[in-house]
Automatic annotation (TrEMBL):
Coiled coil: none annotated. One of its GO terms (cellular component) is endosome. Its main location: Golgi. This is Methyltransferase. InterPro entries: Put_SAM_MeTrfase, SAM-dependent_MTases_sf. It is a single-pass type II membrane protein. The keyword Isomerase does not apply. One of its GO terms (biological process) is methylation. GO terms for molecular function: methyltransferase activity. It comes from the Eukaryota. Its EC number is 2.1.1.-. The keyword Transferase applies. It comes from Spirodela intermedia.
Length: 438
């Protein structure tokens, strides 16, 4: 017997992000944060695709066009069409651009808050800048789903009461273009979270009415912003039209009162770093041969147990983006991943991930099942039809997965590859079948 299929109305089911409540009960949008059901309250069924779902358009065409039926929501186009976010074009959605555009140099990693459909991130891709876009699941229907369908790195998140799942000093820039965050409220606590994320000499780019409006309450908001940014030792370096840019000064004498301890990270030797990189370069070449796909067949990738980020680094010449996950039960290597110019988050695989169904073309699960045995259902939710799952673990665990995976409508093949100790070990490559409710 296979696993039951959820009713069709659950085709966009996100377990830890229930349906949007129009009127927030908390001014800091607490209701938009993660609220995961207890394990016994979670659905145990396969999330179906929507009616007329199609295999996503390949990158780079997907940057500008995606299938209408895959994200069948019109509200965002209706309210944001004038800003050139997204337009309907027969059976397609078209993303002409829009947002904040300016020249940037010497940037490696960038955080886009309230990213819309991530056109700002799409604009940065040719500049080899890694972006992590996020926005809440709110009244702007499915903006993160649009971004992911396009093949642009994004996740559901909100900057509110809980600390974001990123290490300190991770980003060269944080960008907010009409992101609807009240940075001036609560003594600037949300700006202080941005300060934690920014590297020394990093930039905060803010495009919103308080920058340029001189009527109503906007001058008061601007005054509060200036007071807060001065208190955390940011320097306003430019203000033009509707955009203001601050730099986080590397000034210890100024920052001593607000100094924060960095998250503890493991010590990594250069030899281990280099050997990890070379190992994963070989593995990636073998993976692509075994999957029998071209470089352009895969765009959205997740490494579910990223360790030092070697798998993602080995994909740097491929037209992909990689979400690196450092499980909360593992060593804290996320800072090292960001130091490599990559992006990722902390996550507890006992809970579902903050993304829409059918997000990823490839899941890489190296020694995940040794620590989280009940993760197959969540993997099925976030992998796209005809997407791949690569599983490496203890042989006894692989035997169990090989037996269970067909019940999730996965095809399973077993192969042999050398591990880091140059010992030949089995691995599984699974492919999710394209099925639908008729």
């Amino acid at each position: 017997m296979g696993v039951n299929v959820c009713p069709l109305e659950y085709n966009e089911h996100i377990p830890c992000h229930p349906s949007y409540v129009k009127h927030s009960l908390d001014e800091r949008k607490r209701d938009l944060e993660r609220h995961c059901p207890l394990p016994q309250e979670r659905l145990f069924c396969l999330v179906p695709p929507p009616v007329d779902y199609k295999i996503p358009i390949k990158w780079p065409i997907s940057r500008d066009y995606v299938w209408h039926s895959n994200v069948n929501h019109t509200h965002l186009a209706e309210v944001k069409g004038g800003q050139n976010w997204v337009h309907e074009k027969k059976e397609l959605w078209w993303f002409p651009g829009g947002g904040t555009h300016f020249n940037m140099v010497l940037l490696s990693t960038l955080k886009d808050v309230g990213c819309g459909v991530a056109s700002f991130s799409a604009y940065l891709l040719p500049l080899d800048i890694q972006t992590m876009s996020f926005a809440p699941k709110d009244g702007h229907e499915n903006q993160i789903q649009f971004a992911l369908e396009r093949g642009i790195g994004a996740m559901i998140a909100v900057i509110a009461k809980k600390q974001l799942p990123f290490p300190s000093h991770s980003f060269d820039m944080v960008h907010c273009s009409r992101c609807r965050v009240d940075w001036h409220e609560n003594d600037g606590i949300l700006l202080k979270e941005v300060d934690r994320l920014l590297r020394p000499n990093g930039y905060f780019v803010y495009s919103a009415p308080p920058v340029y409006r001189k009527d109503g309450y906007f001058p008061i908001i601007w005054g509060k912003l200036m007071n807060i940014t001065r208190s955390i030792c940011w320097n306003l370096i430019d203000q033009q039209v509707q955009t203001a840019i601050w730099v986080k000064q590397e000034n210890e004498s100024c920052r001593v009162q607000n100094a924060e301890k960095k998250l503890f990270g493991v010590c990594i030797t250069l030899d281990r770093f280099n050997s990890d990189t070379m190992y994963w370069q070989v593995q990636v070449r073998e993976y692509w041969k075994l999957m029998g796909v071209s470089k352009t067949d895969i765009r959205n990738v997740m490494d579910m147990n990223a360790n030092l980020g070697g798998f993602a680094a080995a994909l740097s010449t491929f037209p992909v983006w990689v979400m690196n996950i450092v499980p909360v039960s593992a060593n804290n290597t996320l800072s090292s991943i960001y130091d490599r110019g990559l992006v990722g988050v902390f996550h507890d695989w006992c809970e579902p991930f903050s993304t829409y169904p059918r997000t990823y073309d490839l899941l890489h699960a190296s020694h995940i099942f040794s620590h989280y045995q009940d993760v197959l259902l969540e993997m099925d939710r976030i992998i796209r039809p005809e997407g791949f799952v690569i599983i490496r673990d203890e042989e006894s665990i692989l035997l169990k997965v090989r037996d269970i995976a067909p019940k999730f409508l996965w095809e399973v093949q077993s192969y042999l590859l050398e591990n880091e100790e140059k010992i030949v070990k089995p691995l599984l490559i699974c492919k999710k079948k394209f099925w639908a409710i008729i």
